[in-house]
Amino acid sequence: MNNIVKTLVIALVLFAVPSFATSGQSDAVHVLSTKRYIFYFKVEKELIGGSVQVFDKGEKMVATAKIEHVKNIVDFFYLPAGIYNVKIKKGAEEFVFAYVNGQ
Fold first, then answer.
1. Which member of 30, 47, 89, 92 has the lowest number of beta carbons within 10 Å of its beta carbon?
2. 3-class DSSP assignment, residue 44
3. pTM for the full model?
4. Residue 6: pLDDT above 60?
């Protein structure tokens, strides 16, 4: 019984901490889907004209594009399997999301 309580407390902390740790600016980018080699996201209009950059685990930039629309897609089909960071930025604002390409 004591182990169950400890497990529930740890699970609560793991799920609750990220919700408290996010900044108010994270509302500017919404990840809509990460299925089938696709990172699909929506940005607020203020971020149009910014850029989206993809970095591999060695922090080497493997792709970049200008954000021209509210809804955007990053296609990972031709990239090797691995963990990538997707950086969305405009001016001083920067948002970073991890993406696992499981080919």
1. 92
2. coil
3. 0.71
4. no
